[in-house]
Amino acid sequence: MGLAIIVFIILFGAVAVLGLTLSARNPMSKRVEDVVAGSPQELELDLSKSQHHTSSFATMLERVGTTVQQGKKENTTLKHSLIHAGYREANAVNIMYGIKVVFPVFLLLVIAFAWHPANFLFYIAAGGLGYLLPDYGLQWLIKRRQKKIRKGLPDALDLLVICVEAGLGLDQALARCTKELGVAHPELADELNLVVLEQSAGGARGDSWRHLAERTGVDSVRHLVATVIQAEQFGTSIAKSLRVHSETLRLKRKQTLEEEAAKTSVKLVFPLVLFIFPSIMLVTIGPAMITILKTLPQLVHH
Question: Residues 24-35: pLDDT tens digits?
């Protein structure tokens, strides 16, 4: 019972820390949109509001993280990981470092109060787990977001092809697709919206698409960016290039699903052997074994 309580407290703490610190995000797209469309006075007011938007707990974590800053190389790596997970704020790195400091202390307090007296090894394990768990949580968020982006990319390409073939330019088609994908694929729509806003702010098309590949870290997006840049440089049909790339993505997704379906039979071996086969053996052989055990003493006496 005590172990179950400790596990529950650990999981609840992990969810609470990640939720409280990383949920209050100030999207970069909103800031770029304000720069493009808003007046300087409106922008100043919006920035003053965003400064007070973060919670006090996140501010505390940011201050703790500022005191334990790592080297410049480690900060750059962590910043790229946070961007891949969708957190683009300037204080995201400090908050992440604050989580890696506060969360081990939280686990140590849980061990001290819920399991007293505890072995010294438990404290070491709690400290190590509290330090590593935020990194694993961040990697899980990155994989989940990249999976959603990868899943919505073929639909986005189909919409782009339709819009381009209907007579729209690539920039107008991309803006239209961003609005249409906002409900079905919000993560991909958010990234494409940043491309539209960067181009509206005067950025070069190639640089805006390269930034998209850097922010997502998805191979399919990198291939799409290379296709768009090559089509622009060599003057080929962008609609035809996007259609070929979309068909390639759909074929790749189909092959991935077929591969996962082929692995299903192998993955079913373990639950069959551990759970289903013992039940079948018990149901089929159990009555016979009971009958044998009842009649065997009578046969021995005779």
Answer: 444 444 444 444
